[in-house]
Amino acid sequence: xxxxxxxxxxxxxxxxxxxxxxxxxxxxxxxxxxxxxxxxxxxxxxxxxxxxxxxxxxxxxxxxxxxxxxxxxxxxxxxxxxxxxxxxxxxxxxxxxxxxxxxxxxxxxxxxxxxxxxxxxxxxxxxxxxxxxxxxxxxxxxxxxxxxxxxxxxxxxxxxxxxxxxxxxxxxxxxxxxxxxxxxxxxxxxxxxxxxxxxxxxxxxxxxxxxxxxxxxxxxxxxxxxxxxxxxxxxxxxxxxxxxxxxxxxxxxxxxxxxxxxxxxxxxxxxxxxxxxxxxxxxxxxxxxxxxxxx
Length: 295
Prior knowledge:
The chain is α/β, with parallel strands linked by helices. It folds into two domains: about 5-215, Rossmann fold; about 220-295, 2-Layer Sandwich (Alpha-Beta Plaits), CATH 3.30.70.100. It has eleven helices and 14 strands. The chain has helices at about 45-50, 70-75, 90-100, 105-115, 130-140, 160-175, 190, 215-220, 230-240, 260-270, 285-295; strands at about 5-15, 15-25, 25-30, 30-35, 60-65, 75-80, 150-155, 180-185, 200-205, 205-210, 225-230, 245-250, 255, 275-280.
């Protein structure tokens, strides 16, 4: 596993409020890591600590396998909150100004503007840009310096469906064609589900779960939810009697994901002395899965 972000017990406290509470985050090279949580859950604060614009009270950060954060942060591009733009300048002029700080040739600037779909705006000032154009320019600015990791905080917030698709396509292109690992937060779950390879779910400052897209798909497929007087024993019996069955326990409920006859499971559990209270077929949407975990 090639981890390019690893945190251990990362904590940030503001006065009496713990904004981020002992977060253990793991982002692998090549991930599009979807960071999910309500407003105020700790997403932006966590991102700021990774970038060094906010400092933790406790815990540690490793970037690209090292605790040399100064070197690691040079490999990161970011768009956190609103992009800082010179409104009376063109897209190219904004890129040129930033390139003086972070590096980048005129050739690279033109390539980035083409990548984010702003290569044909000519002398148009940023003050006349739509919100979606400004977001794309912000992503373009974050790409100067050839980052290996891109951190994007709510990049599609406030965009219309067309703007959302444009940003989504840019993220996918950067990940697949440019091999850039991406940490992206959003509360628009259906859109994240179209691009994310791994999710981190944060609630009230605590990272409650990290799950891959394939694991999420499996958990949201049709399943058999079984409530008994002894979930642990029930799970053991089911796995012993049904070879290779996919099953686990969540919140005291035994979940069976493989196609299985509910009557057969009920009979086997009952014959084994287990009291079966309820057996139900359930199929969750991605949104329902996340809402159960963030409230």
